[in-house]
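Quick start: read one record
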Amino acid sequence: QVQLVESGGGLVQAGGSLRLSCAASGRTFTNDAMGWFRQAPGKEREFVAGINWSGGHGYYADSVQGRFTISRDNAKNMVYLQMNTLKPEDTAVYYCAVRIGMGSYNYWGQGTQVTVSS
């Protein structure tokens, strides 16, 4: 079965950096897109960043573009989210997700809390 496990969340001051990791297992993920979503208290879950597992092309929400970078290590089945110049509004639970083929993301991790203090 597909399993996604996030790590790397924590408390950081505004302007700081944090790197999230996602360990994927259960299949080869050769052409599977991987992504990061987040959900802040009282808000809907929103897309943050995505990357094709094999191609390495990243795409981002406007709110994080230029500050966040998604990357992958196919040999280790790992996906990362480097978050720089963090803002208090980045505070949320961050979820790793995978999209098998085309369409919607259909597998999710349990999430990791990111808290940015002012």
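The first strand starts at residue 3 and ends at 7.
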